[in-house]
Amino acid sequence: MINRNANLNENIRAKEIRLVGEEETQIISTSEALKMAIERNLDLVMISPAVNPPVCKIMDYNKFLYEQSKKEKENRKKQKTIDIKEIRLSPSIEEHDIDVKANNAKKFLQNENKVKVSIRFRGRQNNYTHVGKEVFDMFISKIGDVGIIEKPAKLEGNNMILILAPKK
């Protein structure tokens, strides 16, 4: 609505302004509007300088800025940050180890976090990337209906990466 660098009181250079108030809008001279603001112990604030004549309002500007900062703090508190947790697997992982890692991934997903599952291929394992896909398929079957695949398995260099998101 109003920016923090708004023109205030004597800094308003226009000769005529459109004064927006509780009662009605009126076009009056800047000096008259400034006198009205001083009588009420308030500030004359330019809301919209782009229109002709510029739109101004009489208000307590410091109180307005304080309320805006309180609203911004409230909005920041309500925001939910999503963390990405990583689980690393290997192409030669055993089924029990996959169960343990899948249980950890379930905990992460139930806490509304995303999970990045990666498999690192070393040496000759690079020739057998299909084994990595099988490990991912087994891992996803263990996760069940807690998470969904946000980004399917993709080979990036020596790593195969899969991203899971919590089911809503």
From TrEMBL:
It is found in: Cytoplasm. Residues 82-167 form the Translation initiation factor 3 C-terminal domain. GO terms for cellular component: cytosol; membrane. The keyword Protein biosynthesis applies. Keywords: Cytoplasm, Initiation factor, Protein biosynthesis. Its main location: cytoplasm. One of its GO terms (molecular function) is ribosome binding. GO terms for biological process: ribosome disassembly. Monomer. IF-3 binds to the 30S ribosomal subunit and shifts the equilibrium between 70S ribosomes and their 50S and 30S subunits in favor of the free subunits, thus enhancing the availability of 30S subunits on which protein synthesis initiation begins. PANTHER family: TRANSLATION INITIATION FACTOR IF-3 (PTHR10938), TRANSLATION INITIATION FACTOR IF-3, MITOCHONDRIAL (PTHR10938:SF0). This is Translation initiation factor IF-3. It comes from Clostridium aciditolerans. The gene is infC.
